[in-house]
Protein 1
Amino acid sequence: MTTHPQLLRVHNFMVSRDGFGAGEDQSLEHPFGSAIDPSALFSWAGATASWPGRTEPGGSRGLDDCFTRDWGRDIGAEIMGRNKFTPYRGPWEDHPDWQGWWGDEPPFHTPVFVMTHHPRPSLTVSDTTFHFIDADPATVLARAREAAQGKDVRLGGGVTTVREFLDADLVDTLHVAVSPVELGSGLRLWESPDDLLDRFHRDVVPSPSGVTHHLFWRR
Amino acid sequence: MTTHPQLLRVHNFMVSRDGFGAGEDQSLEHPFGSAIDPSALFSWAGATASWPGRTEPGGSRGLDDCFTRDWGRDIGAEIMGRNKFTPYRGPWEDHPDWQGWWGDEPPFHTPVFVMTHHPRPSLTVSDTTFHFIDADPATVLARAREAAQGKDVRLGGGVTTVREFLDADLVDTLHVAVSPVELGSGLRLWESPDDLLDRFHRDVVPSPSGVTHHLFWRR
């Protein structure tokens, strides 16, 4: 077996057929913006046995589940943008009790590095510790790799953060689930999935659930 | 998150389009029987980055790799038939030096339970310990589940062993990769993949590599 390279991986990133992953007007009530019904993008994942948000037994273990269960495999840290952590902008002191969207048991179970221009002390919720870092993508990735202790690092989004790491050419693999809905506006991952083919191989895998999985890996 | 059920999983099980997984005349030179060129069944897996037998860097990280990398995820023990462990029949004393097909570093890294009518002391090679058990499938599965300490158990084959566990209705999920070759004879997994639909859901996923992945999970 070869030595394991320490990859930066994007998983279960959900976009509309026209390439949008979120609206522009995120709020507490509308984490993905008011124009987006998240269920249109997320329902394929919620139906699987391995979706971290599942609260009942059951769920499918077919193709879609292959992707939801791959999310945690061999991951030692996550990187996310501030807008994945909170709907609030500005100084953290304005919302001192906010601990993320995930309640008392965040699904990460690893260190999480939150990119923000407003540093603050680290925050531990159950077995997840959030670190708040004001730095460029390469620096944040170096920190996350060190914390991951040889395991891979997951890039958790949102759209703006994924775009930043793609622009810096730091992403090794991406799994994007394209839903058969048109949103028309919002924050865009791409004009077309073909945009990435200069740097990535790709498999396109239609699922019985109606989404199309795009799997990219570095050339 | 729900409590994790302890599944019995079959992964990367490779059969021909006409349902054969091995020939009848296994030998040291022909682990899958003389009529089968293993490369016809295995090449899709060998091309992936996560195939345990890969000895060089590189390899694809697309759809086929989703399956090869799922092989070790959350597995705490493996069960295999004697014929997966050795080409030799009869008493173990006739081949005292045989330690399996995998050299000094077997890819399992967990306890492995070898089903055989010829018990013998356990054998440790690197971080894999092989236990040799003369018992029915349900008893072997109970032993493997205990050893897996809450993780899943993988059923590693060969064909005869997978059939025994299917007949005893002990298998929770199966991934079978069907290659576009006809073998005409040998040890048969099924007459048709539809044979299992009375008890399992199924997704059928064609891969760019030419194999078709069949994913089964319990109804």
Note: The longest helix of chain B spans residues 137-148.
Protein 2
Amino acid sequence: MPITKEWQALIDQKLNDRASRIFPAWRLPHDLTEHVRPDASVSAFELLRKTTILSSKEIEITETYSAENLIRILATREITSMEVTTAFCKRTAIAQQLTNCLTEIFFEQALQRAKELDEYIVKKGRPMGPFHGLPISLKDSFMVEGQAATLGFISFLKKPNATKNSFLVDILLEGGAVLYAKTNVPQTLFTCESYNRLFGTTMNPHNLSLTAGGSSSGEGALIGIRGSILGVGADMGGSIRVPSLCNGTYGFKPTANRVPFGGQQDFIRKGWPGVLPAAGPLAHYASDLTFFVRSVLLAKPWLKDSTALAVPWREVPKKARLTIGVFLNDPMFPVFPPISRALQSAADKLKKAGHEVIPVNAPPILTGVTGAVRSFILDTEDTVSKYLAEAGEEPVECVRQMNLAALLGQSGVSLDDMWRFVAEREDYREDWGKIWRENQIDVLLCPGSRGTAVPHDKYGIPVYTLLWNFLDFPASVIPYERANKALDTEVIDGCKLPYYDPTLTLTDCILVNIDEVDGAPCHVQIVGWQFQDEEVLSATETIADVLN
Amino acid sequence: MPITKEWQALIDQKLNDRASRIFPAWRLPHDLTEHVRPDASVSAFELLRKTTILSSKEIEITETYSAENLIRILATREITSMEVTTAFCKRTAIAQQLTNCLTEIFFEQALQRAKELDEYIVKKGRPMGPFHGLPISLKDSFMVEGQAATLGFISFLKKPNATKNSFLVDILLEGGAVLYAKTNVPQTLFTCESYNRLFGTTMNPHNLSLTAGGSSSGEGALIGIRGSILGVGADMGGSIRVPSLCNGTYGFKPTANRVPFGGQQDFIRKGWPGVLPAAGPLAHYASDLTFFVRSVLLAKPWLKDSTALAVPWREVPKKARLTIGVFLNDPMFPVFPPISRALQSAADKLKKAGHEVIPVNAPPILTGVTGAVRSFILDTEDTVSKYLAEAGEEPVECVRQMNLAALLGQSGVSLDDMWRFVAEREDYREDWGKIWRENQIDVLLCPGSRGTAVPHDKYGIPVYTLLWNFLDFPASVIPYERANKALDTEVIDGCKLPYYDPTLTLTDCILVNIDEVDGAPCHVQIVGWQFQDEEVLSATETIADVLN
């Protein structure tokens, strides 16, 4: 079914409106933008360095601070929110033109808000709250009064703009944040890609030909290129961590419903009984992940959002010596040389720094992956397909390929699948419980994916993040090292490069050559037990200090 | 299908074994036990006062202390565990003969354990842990190494005795507790009655003709008559709170999986996706509920039991002035005069004591009840009926009557019922969220049942406790006042006494005359938001101080 003229007109109107929201002075010349294509092996950082739109002060503001530090000097009035907001809006305008990372742009409102905050702090003599004056970017799913939330579904263009903020958005605004843009997602939000038929492809700033990951694709790209210093995503299978590891940022998926998830644009059928999604931050520093989660929880989100858990923030003392379980590879899903090298190097450095590093005998991640997938097929109404069909939108290749029922070797679904899902999760949690108990580990160090960002539409199922959603365990991603074609030459399991294993049905769209990903950011993933968000954040800071 | 001779022989053997475990010197004379019948309107307390088995010291030990106080003097060695254990074993032996509250009796092991604890404290100069020397009773579902756990199912007589303790049992033992008896449950554990075909009827010590409630029936009766100072039950619809309110004890149902639930005797099909059960304490003092939960959580149960939530105990400051929402009655389920009077009196006293008491406009409790019931029909395998059928055991009347699917007006069940269950719970939580937010209440004061304990097999569906299981909200019961036929003469909704409303299909086995329940304990229920167990316990102590 093709897109009708009526829908196409709505799409054109939306894209024109989006383009118009970038002030003329912030538009890039054609000789830069002509290089911007999803098949161009080009660095957006290099293109950015060729513009003169950003002043040196603006480059300093956007490149050299942590969110916390910026808030500190905003609080002392060494800098104004207007300066900071202008710098990030400008850089975001450039990011949009280089990576196509945005869905909604509201710079004018942001600058007005910054002005009000600057007046507030002068008048009251104190900041409005923990986020005073700081621009924060949001995944498109978050509702911001007056703004659309299409989630890349063409049919959602007919939905009215938000009349109410998501609960988290209210908390950020009450805390003094400046909101200025919302960011792109992949079609259906159920893949780790960056393309939808409404807004097109979000590109990875490190290399436009690579995916920005998903589903918080635009957050990953925007924060990657420092158009944002702190952003909010949501993660049900890796949707915060995959964009983080693809774009070289930090990211944290909390235990579900600690950071309030309520009041987002609905796209999952009501009553969803499966793996719970979690909202969480992406940032440039581990300490900013902690700062975000702590500040949000100190606002007691459960007093606003009845879906948020009334589990208050706990201050945990920083451990001088962590006990870190290390799990480098599941033989069924071989980890590719750049990530293996990063993990091994991280483990070595941590040991040298005095931490206890214990290799653990991990249970098969396939069990966790199939358990999670079992819940993804529970929607007998196939709600997401309906949203596509409403506007005659065809599923894209990677959505079409994702026949989850077939992955499980079944054709239908029944109530018994729900029982199986719960039973398998209980067993798998106990499998990991043994690992935690026997080794008395604080956290686990493991891959967040088999490789780095891959060329568009080749990410496949995010096996190394998804299992932690199945278990509802908090997990962060730390950027560390980069793919290096001179170093990452190891042959895996008898397969030469490209890294391709045709026996892996769960991942058979992965077909990547080291040349294609040379220079892409590598990472490690840090995982903790459910509800030990505070311990994971603290360990992430400690480990990041050792690594970076 | 009748019980075969083979099964009957096993039953007889079990009952003989149980009887043999009461030392001859602790056996009651026939002129007392001849009064013990489930249809006798007789007080077990009065029968107990006629025995001379307990010394005055033993009466003092069992009647005048809180668990915490007893532990305090055990720690200073003013008293030995042997003395305390002997006193409670003796009184429990009497309780068993008067109320039939026990399933497993292991006094010998208890006395041996007490001796070891007495030696321990002398040798080490300190108590073993927070429960040092204290006898604690357990619902039959908890596994104690070497003991059976039949749950009143005849077919479970063929199961081997426990080879491993439940995780909570390990925590109690590591904390220095003395275990001495396990307590009776109703057939299937899915009713609030006290009868099963293996052990028979547990009777209410206040009046043997009244139910002891269920499903922690034996705990209620045993603690009610002070054969136990602190016991552990489990609650999925009211199974801690109903026995508490029937027998005049305190009881607390925590948020599910804070007190570790794992390692109990299985009787629910694996993978249960519905309302979560919770383990929790019954006691004689509000402060002992807190003491129990705090002590268990300080042992970090999640390090043992992978189903226990890693949400540590929080110390919360005691509020001098509570904001208490009050909800006296749902017109669809009229609360009977004794409980209405107790609630109104409690609200008045609390107001006089300086607390803010706010009447709230509660959403219909029917919504919570049907939501929970929707989850109870999800077992397509009807596992519990299989356990009955295995030994040819017929369902008792109140189990047979409980056609839950019919209550919901449906004949079958499908995966969509699971979605509906989750969706209804989300909506209902938000309905209550509005109440909590608009009134900024700390806790809610409300009925825990329509009436007091009722004659056997007339309790019906525990509507006023079940809705809080649906929401997974922590809730306690405080004993307060007693039914009084001189005072409780009010006519409800046009029905004269007996309190019977034939329009209420959910409760149509309730048919009670005030004469039958005269003198039975009344109560109030205190409810808090999910995960605010600490706040509920603290408020329960404060409110109990005002009331009693």
Note: The first strand of chain A starts at residue 102 and ends at 105.
Protein 3
Amino acid sequence: MSHQEGLTAYIAAFVAELSKTGVKDVVISPGSRSTPMALVMAEHPDLRIHIQVDERSASFFALGIAKATRKPVALLCTSGTAAANYYPAVIEASISRIPLIVLTADRPHELRDVGAPQAIDQIHLYGKNVKWFVEMAPPEKTEDMIRYARTVCGRAAATAASYPQGPVHLNFPFREPLIPIMDENMFELPERVGGYVEIETGRLSLSDQTFAAISEDIASYKKGIIVCGQLDNSEFANEVIALADILQFPIIADPLSQLRSGEHDGQHIIDAYDAFLRNEDAKEALKPDVIIRFGAMPISKALTIFIKENRTARQFVVDSGAGWREPTMSASEMIYCDEALFCKKIGEAAAPSGNPDYLNKWLTVNELAKEQLSAISQVEDLSEGKLFQQLTEMLPEDSTLFVGNSMPIRDLDSFFLLNKKNIKVMANRGANGIDGIVSTALGVASVSQPCYLVLGDLTFYHDLNGLLASKLYNIDINILLINNNGGGIFSFLPQAKEPKHFEKLFGTPLDLDFSHVVEMYNGKYDLIKDWEQFSETLAKNQEVDGLKVMEIRTTRDSNLKEHRDLWNSVSREITTMLKGDTK
Amino acid sequence: MSHQEGLTAYIAAFVAELSKTGVKDVVISPGSRSTPMALVMAEHPDLRIHIQVDERSASFFALGIAKATRKPVALLCTSGTAAANYYPAVIEASISRIPLIVLTADRPHELRDVGAPQAIDQIHLYGKNVKWFVEMAPPEKTEDMIRYARTVCGRAAATAASYPQGPVHLNFPFREPLIPIMDENMFELPERVGGYVEIETGRLSLSDQTFAAISEDIASYKKGIIVCGQLDNSEFANEVIALADILQFPIIADPLSQLRSGEHDGQHIIDAYDAFLRNEDAKEALKPDVIIRFGAMPISKALTIFIKENRTARQFVVDSGAGWREPTMSASEMIYCDEALFCKKIGEAAAPSGNPDYLNKWLTVNELAKEQLSAISQVEDLSEGKLFQQLTEMLPEDSTLFVGNSMPIRDLDSFFLLNKKNIKVMANRGANGIDGIVSTALGVASVSQPCYLVLGDLTFYHDLNGLLASKLYNIDINILLINNNGGGIFSFLPQAKEPKHFEKLFGTPLDLDFSHVVEMYNGKYDLIKDWEQFSETLAKNQEVDGLKVMEIRTTRDSNLKEHRDLWNSVSREITTMLKGDTK
């Protein structure tokens, strides 16, 4: 048996099984050591191969596809620091629970830690940030080793896809020569053609008695709220709305909860809390005695502080991934159960319990805040806040809106409010990095159209390399670049009061004319001068293919002032109303 | 004692000590959690602060400064994936033995692994790739904690700088509010102003008896060679040349050994081995019975194979860093000793032992190969090989030549031969990545002028973000961009025979017009049409500040043919000569 026969049979078995598990997309970065796996993957009829030279962009692109499809995506790179460039995306995938199958080619054992070229220590390269790490056995064509390659592959895909979803890492030692024997029959597997081992993964559930007890417990409170953070579960939205209706509790809906858009009944949805939970009178009036929380921690710092300030309230945190997404140290019950199932079962057992006055107070305060916030639509200058308000009106139905971290995600929270359009809202909120955003959005756009990305200039700069995918693969994407020439969020932080080093350390103006780089990547670039041109260009670009960048220049100082003014006016009106109430 | 007083005193003590240990350069990426450390560093009068938004580029930039100065450079970033972006540079620093002090800000303990924003697991984030990891104690202003901050800082710098040099990682938990009390006296330390604890690090040496025994051992062989890989030790060049002179051994000098350039006596230097060690007759004629090897493994694969084919020869591998840079599995003695000291001591004890015929054979074959290789200077078309031959003639005295991996480093090896100019040649040869090359070279250029960077288009693309440093800090750099529109090295590998997937998986043409991005970064761009324009532009650009990019377009196919033709002609001539010899 030749080396190449063993190599080919082992890898072909692995790749055939990978496809059988349902993996469709593989993102490959060119390299030498990974040659046999890359060639065999390219030969497989059912795998879509995406080539990306920069492994950091490659890994975020894969993350984007996996986010949009909720199915494992495979990554492949050569040995050395190539694999280390995946680290940020692997960590993001781990925290935000996205299934990735990271495949790294490695030098064989005898060429490790001996100064051989392009050899680093790839064993447990990503530490505890992957759900599973396997140092693969050297390729061999024996019955056991073929069964081994198929079993590990199936197990890796199942591990990545089971709750909480996340990344897994398989490291393959490959010896030279690295060329497989290309043969059209290589994927014909000797037995169990339909997949080697089927893996069924259940969801967490509780007993009916436990559901009944929790339901009774919750129903004993009158002032309840439901808090929904980032969550991507297609059944969840309807179930939680039904539960809120039964309990008569308001739903505090983070923009990533997918509850702010859609045709559902929005009558219990509270969307302007980030503005009004900065007001002491509102916080006093709205004190809950029970909180039911789903998904990741919400974006709003005001909401997090509100939860922390209400530690006497019972707090049920429901997590289908059995994690601990609870930085407020105020949970009283941690419930490891599928969220949609939890809502359904609690709703079935519960009697209406909420106090209509309390619910109405939330709804009234929310309405008042929204009235004040709607003043943003009157702003004539280009404004970061107004941009998101405009998007609720202008985005086409069924679009995906991907939002960068730092300021854009906060403005999304403040200004992208309840609407009837079926808009999917996404962001990288595992580790909240400004890295890899362009690539993640392009990964999403490659499977979900139309796609809009809103991000700041530092975030855009950080992943300019990601734009290449749009050029090479003709991926349509609409990028709304908010350019305030530096780090806008720092103006909101205490260091803004230390002017001595502020611009150098935090403001960090880059003074870049991004039109050049958009041209390099064959994109259409528009510098937006006013709101009329904005809406015209946004509409016109729907007919344009490929990369489209609309740059909206703002200033950090006026942005700060605009936000402060709005929060102050919200706060003033709410205080007036609530003081009036108590008279 | 307020929180801010404790925070300030602790960090100021750390930063004051950092400067006392000799650290001059700190590369900071903007972020919120790292605010107190960034502000205190910016306030220190003796630290040079470099701001870089992309942490991957930041870390390679720091690596470049540390490579050029051989002194520890500090890196600072905020919590989250920012720190993960350092991973490739940390690994490169570890393998290539470059001292870095990585400082990461982290959430405090109570906000870890609980879904708090921008929080990842930073404990042992870089695994075994750092020499030392410390989870710092939370800041406090007690005498013990101030002594602790100073001690850890001194120890970190000493650990990074002691042999083998490498990266260390300190992780700082910071609680809000993150603002220190800015006070001009904050760096006044209560005691031992000149540095808290002085650390003296020795070098490895052997006893005189051991040196004498090794010396006698080596002198008992007649056919000896000295192989010098990448090594950066200012005393080494003269010592190894003196030793070669005593032993009458040839020195096989890798381009990164720093032995190919300089005013030293080059009479034992063999520089064209990569061409002639592909010839079986040469390999037969030049079989050694003893090999003394210094530094990293040489770049040349032909040389590595030659060493592996001569396993009956004694092989002494000398390593001041007590590592195991020996992938050939043919070392007979591993000697942990300072390289310059080893040469000196062995030279003192040794009697001339080499066989002049054997030495002359090396020199004659080398001369013949160089004659054939010099044909490259007659090539009229733009050619990757000729570029390096031209650089030996055209680079100004005392310049630094930084070379990208993949093809350029190999062409450097083949065509950048012995010269009297004092040119420092550098590359990232720890893990041989194509990542971070622009930034590493700019880090070098920020402390060492004039600086020339030669790299391919995929490598340039991979770190385009690095160019921003040149614009923001007016760093002068001459970039020679060899654009063969894809991965040129793969044409030399066996997969080139598999045309079906070759261009897609390995050729990977990007079709980018890089003039746009050079313009965005305020650079001067020239598309080189012929050799005359090349030499004119190279000369003219010496008078131009900032970023200068000269693009040389070549084709991968003609490059492959040119290399093959040259190797064939070298081989043919050598065979003719050696067969003539044996007649």
Note: Chain B touches chain A through 90 residues (CB under 8 Å).
